[in-house]
Amino acid sequence: MNACLYCEGVHTSQFTFSQFLRGVENGLCELCLKKCLFIKEPYCLLCGRSLLRLSSQFIDHDICKDCAIWKTSSYEGMMTKNRSLLHYNDFMKEWMKRFKFQGDYALLPSFKKEWRSLFYQHFKTCSFIIPIPLSEERHFERGFNQSEALASLLPRQIVSPLSRIHTEKQSKKNKQERLQEELFSFSFSRKLNNEEVLLIDDIYTTGATLYKASKVLKQNGAGLISAMTLARS
């Protein structure tokens, strides 16, 4: 039996002998998993937001109204879709606080099995993975890039063609402020050659970060661009 990564209680799952031989991966106990809300269909075909939890007035056919607005902006077509694993509920806010802001890196494998399953379900044809970068100042402050950590759990090459321009934290800005701000520059040694790429980030909030990253990548030769995030607010 293993201790839960989050509450350190006993993990009661039963493992086969073959799993034991290759090493049991830690995870969350059943009590902690019950506090998680995994996103299920129906969801917005663009951003992956659950439509079950959304009033009909905020749904435009099979996409949410936020994505309908993105489709009429200059960012239309930059990103094919985002898929998120979990709702950003109270449990995930506390989990993210410990992982991202308090540096509890040991929490990383909490959702490894489900995270990889989401990848194989939607993104197995991508050429490589691009984590959303942090500015040098923010990286120094936190000690690691949470998006790079999440990307490391997936079976694809990780490349870093984007550099982050240091700004005030995105969580402190409204949607209009996020839209007006330049976030990324292209810092790769070559243009992308129409490759299919997957952006990785921790939380999808307004979509501004991912759309801005996608636009820079498109301007530098990327083909299909999708995104995968651990949580959707």
TrEMBL record:
Gene3D superfamilies: 3.40.50.2020
InterPro entries xrefs: ComF/GntX_DNA_util-trans (IPR051910), PRTase-like (IPR029057), PRTase_dom (IPR000836)
Domain of life: Bacteria
Similarity annotation: Belongs to the ComF/GntX family.
Name of the molecule in the record: Uncharacterized protein
Species name: Priestia filamentosa
